[in-house]
Design brief:
This protein has helices spanning 26-42, 44-55, 66-75, 78-99, 138-150, 165-174, 184-193, 210-219, 244-255, 270-284, 290-300, 309-319, 331-335, 352-357, 393-409, 413-427, and strands at 12-15, 105-110, 113-121, 124-128, 154-158, 178-180, 203-205, 224-225, 233-238, 262-267, 302-305, 323-327, 343-346, 383-391. By secondary structure, the chain is an alpha/beta fold. The protein has 3 domains: 12-21 and 231-360, Nitrogenase molybdenum iron protein domain (Rossmann fold, 3-Layer(aba) Sandwich), CATH 3.40.50.1980; 26-228, Rossmann fold; 392-427, no CATH class. The radius of gyration is 25 Å and the shape is globular.
Length: 428
Amino acid sequence: MTSETTSPKAPVFIKAPSRNATADNAPVETLVTEVIARVRAEGDAAVRDYSRQFDKAELEVFEVSEADRLAALEELDPQTRADTEFAITNVTNFAKAQLGTLSALDVEILPGVHLGHRNIPLDRVGCYVPGGRFPLLSAPIMTIVPAKVAGVKEVVACLPPNAHRAMIAGCHLAGADRIFRIGGAQAIAAMALGTESVPKVDKIVGPGNAFVNEAKRQVFGPVGIDQLAGPSEIFVLADETGDAEMIATDLLAQAEHDVRTRVGLITTHKPLADAVLAEVERQLSDLSTAEIAARSWEDYGEIALVEDEAAMIAYSDHVAAEHLQVHTVDPQGFAKKLSHYGSLFIGELSSVVYSDKCSGTNHTLPTMAAGRYTGGLWVGAYIKTATHQWLTEEGVKQVAPPAARQAASEGLEGHRRAAQLRLDRLQA
């Protein structure tokens, strides 16, 4: 049995989730449709009204001035600034290394038929920076820095007006060209459509709540988006070598993000499953964020017991978790057998939290099994690969006859004439 051909055999749940992560989205969809329509019709006035309604913010001017940016930077704790710059350096260096793998292409596919492509940075990108319950200084780094490395001409950042001022400093340090204090669906609509204050962008990236996600879904088409991100996820794959304390700690570190975070352990070893269950309960007793983490664990946490390594791989590929940690006797070898995930953390020393904050890989990743068809945000997301071709007379002689014959067989006389014209002139 393989995960490509059949569904994995159902595991035994030592702890099963009590809720389905897919919620009814109809009320969100209706409200977001209204927000986008009003921003399209009223521009800044609609954005200002929604900021008053949803964020309790009275804003005459949305854009953060250069003076205010520098003031926010001055207010930033020196150690926090140093740690932020450390993260920016790592994310920058990794994005540059990724960019180095993208090459222009020119190839003579037939005599005289030259094909190729160029990698062209986008003109203007909008980065949504979530406010959330905590000042997530890593958030602007992950969306803004790769855009600057890619060569995007202008990076626009939007963050909720009530976001911690350290977030403004984070956007500034990451390299945002313009920063706007606009949050929620109205921020997505403003960047997608353009208003008197906010320029229209070519692509919108960055995670947010259900309203932000729905807004990205609705504006997609005239503008690009990175992905539709749901609540965060972490799964750990472990055999009998797994460390219960370490696994429980990593699960709860992710669970404290949001009450809808999905966390899980997939293991072949029942004693480890039982130990992790007990360890999670023990750690929740003195975790300062237990009000959030406990709800996440109760509603969406799971511990799945499977028969063997093959079943572990099959169920993991079925879940396609956003963050996937491998805690097995041979983590490097095991990792090569996995196909579907957002980002992989190989070996027990590789915690998700390192990537979340500062190690260099991007933490904006696919959720809700989207890891089956896409990876996370990266420098290539800010670049379009556009093809080109040019032909010599010999090239025309190679492709014109089959092109004309094919057009004729399809009954497309205009196509046939266009294909034949250059050949006729060459032969004349």
